[in-house]
Amino acid sequence: MRLLLALIAFNLIVIVHELGHFIVARLAGIKVLEFSLFIGPRLFGFKRGETEYSLRLIPALAYVKLEGEDEASESERSFSKKSVPARMATIVAGPLANIVVAVLVLLVGYSIAGYDTTRINTVVKDSPAYSAGLRPGDEIISYDQKRIYQPMDISMFLYSSDGNPATVEVLRDNQKIRMEITPQKIPAQNRYILGFTAKAADGPDSNIVAAVDPNSPAGKGGLLPDDRIVEINGGKVASRQEISSLLNENKDKPVEVTVVRDGSNQVLTMTPMLQKTPEQYYLGFDFTSEKGNIFQVIGRSITNSYSITRMEIYSIGWLIRGKVPLDQMAGPVGIVSAINTVVQQSPTALMVVLDLLKMVALISIGLGITNLLPIPPADGSKLVLLMVEGIRKKPLPMEKEGLIMMIGFVVMLTLFVLLTFNDIMRLLTGG
Q1: Residue 168 confidence (pLDDT) above 50
Q2: Do 116-189+278-290 and 195-271 have matching folds?
């Protein structure tokens, strides 16, 4: 059932994209020949007006076929006969629809469950943050001279700066204060884990379970969300770091994990598993959460959508510079798997919905931004060709444009195959 939810979520993101093209094409007077849900052989469909609405065999993706988009047409309502601005609007409408939907999705999620702020909740004593002068109640404005809109931005800029010393600007008692922080670098290592996500990265809530991977030792051993881990093999633990330290000492031997559940202690037995982790950076603070009024929720939905958009652009830059290897990218199989993992780790039906909304927003913006890349046959490449046409005052010859699109299609198909192979290998190896 939850895998089905993941598939539906992924397909809805794609359908929204194509719906954007469809709506603006109709508004621009372009004839829409077909709107198809899914791809492959046609199962059935119906015609309403001049448009054929189809359902196809392979339950993935969707597409809109416009008159004169990929072939010559003399119709005045063909895509090729419309003005450059009308065609550009039709093309950009798909990515724009993904971003608008992401804002709406976040708005729903934040209205129900609230959102994380940029105000510091706790600071771990003797941590890099504490040594730098950060204190509870400080509101982080910028990190490494880059504006911070949500906690995820901190992780992004930590990563992009390789954990080097940075300037942090905070708002304290209505005054802006700047301080220097030097993150603690944790080398790439093999470590033993149980397979749960902590409620907080640091501090007194970091030994509370937020989510559990059902296929991990924690999931198989009976660990549940909201359990507070207080002992590992009789050793007291009060933070995520102390849990990790004891697990690494124990290695792959079974451990007795004492948790506080519903006010009483319970002892669970599980065997930690080995995980390879890349270099990480530690600061030593976490953020508060709140439920704002409708205006705050709308504002937060917009700013966080902008933040995610910015993150996607940074990620593309890292990929081009080789900072992110190709095997870390995900294709459709990996995206559905990631959505499914998030859904599986959600303990209640409400949390399933909320986590799904957040993931949908993230992937929807990712799809929109990726489609704006000037790589054929993505929407961005079509925008570039239209800009060239606008400058030349005439379109490129159909055969040249077709050749460009064909070469791009081969490149994209090759990339799609590589990404799908990576996705399947990760699923098989558990990576």
Answers
A1: yes
A2: yes
Contact 9, 359 (CB under 8 A): yes
Coil vs helix vs strand at 252: coil
What is the SS3 assignment for 263?
coil
Amino acid at 106: L
Active-site amino acid positions? 18
Beta-ladder partners of 48:
51
Ranges assigned E (strand) in 67-183: 115-123, 139-143, 146-147, 166-172, 175-181
Least confident of 109-118, 212-221, 248-257: 212-221
How far apart CA 249 and CA 271 sit, in angstroms, is 13
Residue ranges of the alpha helices (H) in 197-293? 217-221, 240-250
Q: Are 121 and 290 in contact (CB under 8 A)?
A: no
Any alpha helices (H) in 161-293, and if so which ranges? 217-221, 240-250
Kindly give the interhelix angle for 349-371 and 84-113, rounded to the nearest 10 degrees: 160
**What is the pTM (predicted TM-score) of this model?**
0.79
As a residue count, the chain comes to 431
Count of CB atoms situated within 10 Å of the CB of 431: 11
Answer for the pair 356, 9: CB distance below 8 angstroms, yes or no.
yes
At CA 400, angle to CA 397 and CA 406, rounded to 5?
140
pLDDT at 406 over 60: yes
Dihedral angle sign, alpha carbons of residues 6, 9, 12, 13: negative
The tokens describing 199, both together, are 């409620």
Mean pLDDT of 61-90: 91
Which CATH class for the 195-271 domain?
mainly beta
Tens digit of pLDDT for each residue in 248-258? Answer: 999 999 999 99
Burial of 38 (0-12, 13-18, 19+ CB in 10 A): buried
Structure tokens at 87: 């065609």
User: Which two tokens mark 121?
Assistant: 């909740």
How far apart CA 351 and CA 346 sit, in angstroms, is 5
Report the amino acid identity of residue 159: Y
Residue 207: Cβ within 10 Å count: 22
The residue extents of the domains of the chain are 70-114+291-431, 116-189+278-290, 195-271
Q: How many CB atoms lie within 10 A of CB 395?
A: 16
Q: Which CATH architecture has domain 116-189+278-290?
A: Roll (2.30)
Residue-level pLDDT at 225: 87
CA distance 44 to 62: 15
More confident residue, 410 or 49: 49
